[in-house]
Amino acid sequence: MCKDQCSSNCLNALDCDHVTGACNGGCLAGWTGPRCDRTCAENYFGSECQQQCGNCKNGDVCNHVTGLCPTGCAEGWIGSRCNIACQFGYYGQSCKETCSEHCRHANDCDHVTGVCSNGCFDGWLGKYCNQINLALGKHADISSRAHFWSRPELANDGDGGQVDTKCTQTVGNDTEAWWQVDLQGASILSVQITYAENSADTMAGFSVYVSDNSTHFRNGHLCFHHNASSLPALILEFQCRVHGRYFTFYNERRQDVKYPEAYSTYAIVELCEVEILGCERDEGGFTCLPCSTSCKDEACDIETSECLQCYDGYRGPDCTLACPGGYYGPTCDNPCSDRCKSPGQCDSVTGHCVGGCIDGWIGKLCTQQCPQGRYGKTCSLQCKNCINQLSCNHISGSCKSGCSSGWMGDRCNQSESKIYNRL
User: Are 221 and 210 in contact (CB under 8 A)?
Assistant: First the structure.
């Protein structure tokens, strides 16, 4: 007895082998197997599951029938099926971000990450070619000069030579000595200091301050302090994640402090090169990445580049994630009205019900009851024949207190006289 039905996924509607159930004409798009009862393998779709799809946001799997991504494309991809890489010079979510102009091959960067594929132009550093030597060529000052040629700018001229004539130096009998450069406001990431080979003892015990005041720099941020009894290396590198204007190299030899034997008697600064790696104030803070164009007003955190605020209907660190289904608003915390005709379906920005309201309710958010005397879908129906002309139920139209004389039924829309005459 033939009890089993051919698969509805057979290409020729319900046409299958009467013994095995195998679809005679093949399967509808998105289905496979002799009986067309299996979906395409992950990231395949279409007729005979021959077409490939993917590159979906959040690692989602594309639809096995259409090849469409359920929530949009991953970074670096666009198109209805997310199969088009960002065009040259662009990268990231929806290909909205621009490659750095400092990439060596004119705006050539990875279409997903934005990393400059072939390095940077001279003077630019970092994988995005957006970091620079902030000190290079900036105005510098020094507490004293040991020689007429000991200009403070010798320490930030880009020449790291370690001979005396290429280094700046203070006089040799100070109790305090400092060198300072005006960065004009920047986000510092790290520092590399090179000094003369014979001056390790004078360097020992130094401190680095970053401040917004050139005179009272010791009230600023202490970025680094060498407090070891051993002498520092000839080339020192250290992290210094801070924002400020003045970078000050400071050392002292106070009479009331006992220093290790390896330390010099007096405070001397002898710097050959100071390289301060970082990014400019308007280049996204410590990440040196510009704020995402999806950030509200393109404002982001100076340390992380995460958006300070998203436009309504979006969330996430870069404000590219749409509100999940059933929610809307500035932080995606507002649930869609339960009076939306399509449950949980409203505009992610405004909250407006996509398919209108259930019976008895109106308004873009479906929060308003039908006005008195109206009911039903879009409040288009009028209450009739309620006793004492009272209003009816705004959803069903039934009269709450009964019908006027001569009328009957839930909605008081049946004439008693007509019913009587039929009898």
Answer: yes
